[in-house]
Amino acid sequence: MASAFEYAPAPESRSVVDIAPSYGLFIDGEFTEAAEGKVFKTVSPSSEEVLSEVARAGAADVDRAVKAARKAFEKWSALPGSERAKYLFRIARIIQERSRELAVLETLDNGKPIKETRDADLPLVAAHFFYYA
After folding, report:
1. Which residue ranges form the domains of the chain, and what is each CATH number?
2. Which residues pair with 26 in a beta bridge?
3. pLDDT at 8
4. Magnesium as a keyword (predicted)?
5. Residues facing residue 55 across a β-bridge
6. Closest CA to 109 of 5, 2, 19
7. What are phi and psi for residue 72, nearest 5 degrees?
8. Mean pLDDT of all residues in 119-132
9. For FRET with 27, which of 39, 59, 61, 104 sits at 20 to 30 Å CA-CA?
């Protein structure tokens, strides 16, 4: 028999996030596999459940990332401060908009209480981007 009441998922439940089975390295604007093909599992300390597999960077990957960052810095540093501020401000707003998801992910990944990630960590992350914007 169906319940007369339908309930939404708890605001801090895992159902509010989508975790991909694997993540690559974000280098030069795209996700790529590690050069050596190595991965590690990220495990929830509260349940010992494997959350995802993440590419494990090696020296070649770090070199590639540094090269990409240097290339991006040329364009970034040429932008006027007011334009850079728009990007930083937008990052802060996206963090605020998705803070519920990010807090749940952080709690699943490291076992911190949701109250700490939701009420302290994420607001501080957004505040830092707003400050530098």
Report:
1. 14-132 (3.40.605.10)
2. 31
3. 62
4. no
5. 39
6. 19
7. -65, -35
8. 97
9. 104
Cα angle 120-123-124, degrees, rounded to a multiple of 5: 80
Structural contact between residues 50 and 42, judged by C-beta atoms closer than 8 angstroms: yes
Confidence of residue 2 (pLDDT cuts 50, 70, 90): low
What tokens appear for 24 in the block?
Answer: 């690559």
- Residue 53: exposed, middle, or buried by beta-carbon count in 10 A (0-12, 13-18, 19+)? middle
Model confidence pLDDT, tens digit, residues 74-112: 999 999 999 999 999 999 999 999 999 999 999 999 999
Question: What pTM does this model have?
Answer: 0.83
Q: Quick count: other Cβ atoms within 10 Å of Cβ 27?
A: 19
How confident is the prediction for the chain on average, in pLDDT?
Answer: 93
- Output the CA–CA distances (angstroms, integers) from residue 95 to 53, 74, 101, 102, in the order listed: 23, 26, 9, 8
The 10s digit of each residue's pLDDT in 17-31 is 899 999 999 999 999
Count of CB atoms situated within 10 Å of the CB of 122: 20
**C-alpha triplet 114, 119, 122: angle, nearest 5°:** 90
